[in-house]
Structure formats: structure tokens, C-alpha cells
Amino acid sequence: MTTGTSMRRWFVVLGVGTLTLAILALVRPDLILVANTPTGGDMGAHVLGPAALRDTLLPSGRIIGWSNDWFAGFPLFYFYFPLPALVIVALDLVMPYGVAFKIVTVLGLLATPAGAVYLARSLGFDRVAGLVAGVFGAAIVLTESYTIYGGNIPSTMAGEFTYSWSFALGLFALGATVRAVDAPRLRPLAALLLALTALSHVLTTVMVVLAMIPIMTRRGGASTTVLTWVWGFALSAFWALPLLVRIGLTADMGWRPLTAWEEIFPTELWMVLPFAILGVVLSARRRLFTSPILVMGVVPVVYFWLTTSLPRWFPDLIGTGSWKLWNGRLIPYWYFAVLFFAGAGLGLGWQWVTERLPWRLPTWVPFSGAALLAWGFVAVSAIGGRNHGVTIGSWQPWSGLTVPGFRLEPITLALLLTAVALVVGLRAGYTQPVAETGSFVLAMVVSVAWVASVSFATGWATWNFVGYEGKETWPEYEAVLRTVAELEPGRVQWEHNANLQRFGTPMALMLLPYWTEGTHHSQEGLFFESSLTTPFHFVNQSEMSFRPSSPIPGLPYRTFDMERGLRHLEAYAVDYYISVTPEAREKADEIGMERIAESGEFVVYDLRPQQLVEVSSFVPSVYVPPRSELLGQFVPLVEDSDRIRRSFSSFALEWYTDLENLAYPVTTEGPEEWPRITELDQVREAGPVATGGVVSEVELDDHRISFRTTAVGVPHVVKVSYFANWQATGADGPYRSTPSLMVVVPTEESVVLEFRNTWVEWLGIGLSVVGLVYLLGMALRPKDDATR
After folding, report:
1. Would you state the pLDDT for residue 318?
2. Within a 10 A sphere around the Cβ of 696, how many other Cβ atoms?
3. pTM for the complete prediction?
4. Which residues are 603's β-sheet partners?
5. How far apart are CA 318 and CA 383, in angstroms?
6. Average pLDDT rounded to a whole number, residues 608-623
7. pLDDT tens-digit profile of 220-232?
8. Contact, 139 vs 339, CB < 8 A?
């Protein structure tokens, strides 16, 4: 390898490294290494997930399983993404948990530049255009037009770090699949990367799979693509198969689609759209394989149009309700495609210019240009700093990046770039091709310009990474935690209030199970869609909170109705209630709730005794939809379609609104002697049970519920969230029951319910083992055989 070739490769490494280091600087690396507990938005509650994996699931030989910590129990990592959590647990073996958690949260962001450039090179771009296109595409990490959809720093700090992991891995997976068409030895790598993409986020995986479809048009591409899909699914099947089979047991959050086209065309993209169009044209003229990037750009726009236009045009057919796949989740790929093609336009345009210049120029020419651009940037920033109102598009002059003990001023950055120009220029000599040195310069300028445009992302990172312990309110928060920890174990309902943000996030009390080592379970948790109890909890939250969050549209909320709320909390065997606001305290005292502990403005009320398992007073009814619910999904225009499409969950919500119904359980199935009903007004026609009984020795463990009863043969309500993996010994059932609980009929005095693997989990594990063995076999094959 010649020195020149080696140096050209270093240009790519340095270009990617420049943006990666810029991203790292913005997310406060000094705070990442501080041993504390990160907070901020959803991230402040995500802390529980990997810890539960470490403490509960892995010791029982599971990656997906059950947790009692939230929502009266929920399936943990069945409907959320285990790979980042597994990496956190692995790093926790050699470093503090908080440090491991924070490192993992930013890894996806840091890997995006390398993934974008790898994809560009895989699609046929040379080092020049590939570096610029990749760096431009990866600049999505630094965008701030949105804060929750995923892929950028604000979204990651809001808690979407698994999305950024999957986004970066998906770029590598797509690039490896393209390369595997001509290099079959890369097929195992492509399949593995696709599996890792899926294990980090499912919606990004959908986009990556769609972007792979154009690969099938290439010679040998169909077999490579299908093999990657099948093999990738097999490797992830231990998680993906249960997800697909059990998806019907998720809660519907009623996500409303975005409707403002400003989401697709924010001012942040206006300046680059012309370059993106140029990039599409030049890529086509050079016959570069950019179809996967086009898919990434077209699909989000088309889906956005469908979700906004079809409900207006066909309200009877489509309805105006929620869409399971929220269109906001696809928007980051539109951003990426636009930025990528803008970089391609600049990179290919730069090549067109340099092809008409002398083949070689002194290296100091382009690098001096970079230094001049940097100093010009300093001048603009200085003018803006004197309140002259200088702006460039939506960009505001940058005043510098501050970290403890150090401030990176614009002039300091200019000096650093000048030093880099001198060092690299001297190392490269005077004979480097101007196209390649220029591409590195463009990559540097892009990195500097985007870093300069960042206005609040670093502030968010600072807020998160100083941790709960770094907040001024930590003593107050810690006192509340100690107060709860001293109580007898039990479930806790706490009043929602946005002022809890002062602890780092309004979700701070979701971590009660984390801080109390699992002795006190929070009724509210983060993985909303994972539990059938979620909508019922938010009804309860609205009744027990002066200013509830009410995040699910369309639920039968009854704001601040505590008498009603207490009846609902009894249905879920909630042991304690914590008031936050003076209004809630006054109301609780007025209705005679018993204070048992206080900590500052927080008051704990005792709701005990509660029965986790109790004998039903009435024979359960079995709900039978009046017509096929499946028919109603596909033929919504037939008569009485609302009744046809009504799921058991929606029926249970109606049942839940009438407090008199709480004594009359309704199930989805049951013995033949139980009455069948099709209407809500039939619920109270069920007769009383033949005899009562006494339940004793109730124990709730990680994956096990046990009790003894004197009422053998009588239905018992188990106040734990239903899931299909619960299996009973000494009883028939469990049957899914209203509102989201379980009913069993004991056949013996001693009853045990266990959360066990079923055929779904075992089949998924088997497929993953087969896929892994095949992967290892292919990896260990001689190189000559692997390329045949």
C-alpha cells in the first residue's frame, strides 16, 4: 500500500472522527463518567429496565419475562428492546451502573457517522463523495427540529436511545447487505447486523427491511436479501417471535398521527433541499445505487400523507382515530435521506469541479480554505455576540460550548482547526489529490457548522447526566424514597404532577421499585404499551390527581374524583397513595384517608388491608362479541360496525366506568356453566357464587403467585395483570378478566401460578440457536468456501 493511498484512507477516518468527536463533546463526556443515576424525560425511568434485567430476569435464565414493578405487573422486554439493556448489564460488571447506562445511551449517536459513511461507500460512492454524503446524513444527530421521534440528540436525551442504536445499526446492516450481493462471505455479517437492529427497535427495522427491497433488483440480490431477512429473523427470534405472537396483548395508546407538513419541511432542511435534489440527479447520472436511500425518503412522506389525508377523504372507511404505527417515528429517515443526498450533491459536485482542475494541488490550499472558513465563522459569531442580530437561515451565532473548568470559544475552535490543517497538511505532503483533501475539508466544515447550530441539546444532556443526585432537590427526593422504603412492602399509587420535574423528570416516582430494591411497586411505569393495565391505570391516575397527565386520548377520565378513584385502586389491590399537591392532601383528609407518613409536601396514605387474591362474589360472565371482531376490522362499513370492532379491552373500559360492575367479573373464556353475554347491561345478571371461602398465605414473587383457599371450585380474582404465559397448578385458568386481571378456579386448596415459557418462547429460542450455529459455521468456513 502506498503512502498516498494510506493517507487518503486516513482522510475518511479523520472526517468521520471529526463529527463523532463533535457529537461526543455535545453530550457532556465529563458527566458521562460520573457515577450517578441519569434522569431527564423518559430516560429517568428507563433506569429501571436494565436493572430489572440484571436482578430479576437473567438470574432466572431469562431475557424476556415478568416484572411486578409497574402496572400491577407487566411482561418485561416482550414489547421493548433488550439489546441496549443487555449491553448496560455487561458493562455494569466492570463499572458503576450509572456510568454504564450513560455510555450506552450515547453509543448509538456516536456510531451514526461511521454507519452513514459505511452505507455510502457500500452504495458505490467513492471516498470523496462517500465521506461528504455520509457526514451530511449523520448530521441528523445534531438536528433540533424535533425532540422525540428518534435519531438525534434531543430524542435520545428524552429517552429514545434504543432508537438511535437501531438507527445506526440499521445503516450498517443495509450497507453489509448491499456488499453481500457481490461478496457472499458478508452474508453472516448482514444477517447479524439486521438481527441486532431488530433487537434495538422494531420500527427502525421495518424501514431498513423496506430499504432492502431495491437490493433484490440486482443480480443475485434477491437471494441475498431474502437470506438476510430470514437469517436475521432467526437470530432475533427468541425475542421477535414472542413479540409478533403476543402483540395483541399490548395496550393501545391511541397515538394520533402528525398532521402539520412543517414536520416534513422544517426550516432546518430548507437550505439543504436544493443540494439534495442536485444529489439525486448527480447520483443517477453516475449510476450510483441510491435506491435504498430513496426508499428511506419516500416511505415516510407517503405514510405521512396517508395518515393525514385518508381519514379526511374516507372517514367512514378509515376513521379518524389512532394509527398503530405512528407517522412521527418514520420522520428521522426522511431527514436522513435529505441530508444524505445534500451531501452527495456537494461531494459529487466537488468531484465534478476537481476533475476540471489540475489533478494535484499543494495540500495547503484546501486546508487553508478550511482555516479561513473557521475564522470567518468566528467573525460572524463575534458580530452576533455584539447583538447585531446576525443570523444565517435558522442558525444563530454560536457563543461557545461550556463544560466544567473549560469553555470552547469559537476562536478556540478556529485555532484547533488551523492546527489540524497544518498537521495534516505537513503529514500529507504536497501531492495529495485535491478532491480527497477537499472532501475531508468539507466534512470538517459540515461538522463545525452543525455543531454551531446546536442550541439546546447540550443543555438537555447536562440536565440528564448530572443525575438525580446532582439536582438541588436530591435531598427532598431522597427523603421521600426513604420514607416509602420504611413502610411495609406494597403497591403505590402516587399523584401525578408536572412539578415533579424538579427532581429531573415528572416520572421520578416511577423509580420507587428501583430505589427500594423491589419492595414497593409503582402503579405507574414507563413501558406503556407493554401492559393491559395501562389504560386503567391512567383512569385511576386522573381520579387521584389534581392535574393528571391523561396521555391516552379517548379514555373515560374523571379528573380528581378521589372517592371513585379509591374504589378503582381497591380493584388493583393498591396499598398506598402518595399525594403531591395541597389540593390532593386536603381532599384525602376530607374523605377520611389515613395518613401514615409525611416527607415535606408528600403525604403517604394507607389503603390497606388489600386482598391480592379474593373469592369472587358473583359467577364471572364470558364476553362473546356479537359478531366476529376480525370481520369488523376488515369490513368496517357493515351494520353496527362499532360493536363488531369493539375489543375486550374497550368493553372492559366501559365496564370499568360503572363502579357497580366491579363485583361482577367478565372474562374472555371460561367453563361452560358460566353465563355468556354480548352486552354490557347483561353483566349484573350473573348470580352469586354458591359459597364463600377464606384465602390465605398469598405470596407474590418475581415469576410466581401462590395462595391457599378454602373455596375450592369457586372463582377467584387474582389482582395481577393478565398475560398468556401465566399457567396455573391446582386450578383451572387463568382466564383474562376485567379490567385487566386474572380469574382462576381452584381445584385444590393450594394454588400456584407461574410465568412459564410456552411454545412461542421455545420455538423462538430454537430458531435463534439454529441461526447462531449456522452463523458460527459460516464464519468458521475457509475463506475460499465462504465466497463460493
Report:
1. 46
2. 11
3. 0.89
4. 579, 598
5. 54
6. 95
7. 999 999 999 999 9
8. yes
